[in-house]
Amino acid sequence: MSDKKSLTLLQKIAAASSFGIIVAGIVYWSIQVQSVMELLEMAYG
Amino acid sequence: MELLPFFEWAETSFLGYIGKTYGGVYATFGQSIHLMSLAVLGGSVLVTDLRLLGVIMRDVPSEVVADQAHKWFRIALGFILATGIFMAAAVAQRMYYNDFFWAKMSALLVGIIFVFAIKRPLLKGNHADIQPWLLKLVAVASILIWFSVAATGRWIGFS
C-alpha cells in the first residue's frame, strides 16, 4: 500500500511548497479582503 | 536592481509603439488572445486539479488527464506570455507603479516554477505511487496560485 511508503525527496518538496503556497495565499487574500472592507467602510460608513 | 529604465525603454520600443498607437492591434492580438489563452490555461489547470481532487472525470485515469491537459497548458502559457509582454509594453510605466502588476508577476513566476519544477515532475509518474493527500494538497495549491494570477491580473484594470 502506498500509504505505508515514505515520501521521496520530490514528494517532500511538493508537500512543503504546496503548503507554503496555500498559507501565503490565505494570508495575502485575507489582507486584500480586509483592505477592501476598510475602504468600503470609509466610503459608505 | 533598478527596473524603471527597462520599463521606460519598453514603452518606447517597437512593441510599445504598436500597442499604444493602434488600439485595434492591442485589442485583438493583445487582449482577446490573452484572455482566450487565460481561459485555456485555467481550463487545463482546473481539469487536472479537479481530477486530482476526485471531483470530475473519475472514470478517466488522472495520469491521462494530467498529461493531456499539460500540453494545452504549455501552449496557453506561451500565448499568455507573448501577448502579456506586448500589452504590458504599451503601458509599461503605468504597470511599473501598479502594485497588482507586481503581485501578478510574482504569482505567475511562482506558478510557472511550481508547475515545471514540482507539479509536472510529480505527476509524470504513476499516481498510485503518490499518497492521495499529497495529490490533493498539490491540486489545492495549484488552483490557489492560478486563481491569484487571474484575480490580480483583473485587479490591475481596476486599480
Q: Can you lay out the helices and strands and say which pair or pack?
A:
The complex is a heterodimer of chains A (45) and B (159).
Chain A: H1 9-44
Chain B: H1 4-12, H2 14-21, H3 23-52, H4 62-90, H5 92-96, H6 99-124, H7 132-156
Helix pairs in contact in B: 2-3, 2-4, 3-4, 3-7, 6-7
Briefly, what is this?
Chain A has 45 residues and is mainly alpha-helical. Chain A is built from one helix and no strands. The model of chain A has no long low-confidence stretch (mean pLDDT 89).
Task: Describe this structure as you would to a colleague.
The complex is a heterodimer of chains A (45) and B (159). Chain A is 80% helix and 0% strand. By secondary structure, chain A is an all-alpha fold. Chain A is rod-shaped. Chain A starts with 8 loop residues before the first helix and ends with a helix. The model of chain A has no long low-confidence stretch (mean pLDDT 89). Chain B has one domain. Chain B has helices at 4-12, 14-21, 23-52, 62-90, 92-96, 99-124, 132-156. Chain B is elongated and about 55 Å long. Chain A binds chain B through residues 2-3, 5, 7, 10-11, 13-15, 17-19, 21-22, 25, 28-29, and chain B through 103, 110, 114, 118-119, 121-122, 128-131, 134, 137-138, 140-142, 144-145, 148.
What key phrases describe this protein's structure?
heterodimer, A: 45 residues, mainly alpha, 1 helix, 80% helix, B: 159 residues, elongated, DUF6644 domain-containing protein (chain B), transmembrane helix (chain B), DUF6644 (chain B), membrane (chain B)
Q: Profile the largest sheet of chain A.
A: none
Shape of chain A: rod-shaped
Q: What characteristic shape of chain B results from the CA principal axes? A: elongated
Please indicate the percent range of residues of chain A in DSSP E strands (runs of 2 or more).
under 5%
Query: N-to-C terminal Cα separation of chain A, in Å?
Result: 58 Å
Main beta sheet of chain B = none
| Spans where pLDDT lies below 50 across 5 or more residues of chain A | none
Compute the number of helices of chain A.
1
Q: Helical content of chain B, roughly?
A: over 70%
Q: Average pLDDT value of chain B? A: 90
Secondary-structure-based class of chain B equals mainly alpha
Along the chain, the helix and strand elements of chain B come as HHHHHHH
| Measured distance between first and last alpha carbons of chain B | 25 Å
Q: Decide which structural class fits the backbone of chain A.
A: mainly alpha
Q: Residue ranges of chain B: pLDDT <50 for 5 or more in a row?
A: none
- Share of β-strand residues of chain B: under 5%
Oligomer: heterodimer
Could you tell me the number of beta strands of chain B? 0
Organism (chain B): Pseudohongiella acticola
Keywords (chain B): Membrane, Transmembrane, Transmembrane helix
InterPro entries (chain B): DUF6644
Domain DUF6644 (chain B): 6-159
